[in-house]
Amino acid sequence: MKKTATNPKNIEKKPKRTLTNKDIIALAKRIKELRIKQGFTNYEYFAYEKNIARSQFGRYEKGEDIRFSSLIKLIRAFDMTPSEFFEGFK
Predict the structure, then answer these.
(1) Closest of 85, 84, 39, 83 to residue 60, by C-alpha
(2) Per the CATH hierarchy, to which homologous superfamily does domain 21-87 belong?
């Protein structure tokens, strides 16, 4: 017989918070905004200069999902801390 975990009645389940398409689009916008602010008019030049795969960086700017480790690498490429990066995130 398989044991299953139960939720005692005195513990409330919190609703899960998931990313929305709006969040991903806002992240893509922030990435593109920072690239342009650093003077790179072309995403490929930025990616090449910062040793990031150009095709992958292009997907980030288009709003595809990004792994946390890749996001941290990207934040470091902008010479920022995560706090600084997300300060402008809306």
Answers:
(1) 85
(2) lambda repressor-like DNA-binding domains (1.10.260.40)
pLDDT confidence of residue 65:
85
Report residue 45 as tokens.
Answer: 């030049």
pLDDT in tens, 56-80: 999 999 998 889 999 999 999 999 9
Distance, in Å, from the CA atom of 88 to the CA atom of 74, rounded to the nearest integer, reads 15
Q: Give every CB contact of residue 58 below 8 A, 6+ residues apart in sequence.
A: 43, 44, 47
pLDDT at 90 over 90: no
Residue 75 DSSP one-character state: H
Q: How far apart are CA 83 and CA 5, in angstroms?
A: 37
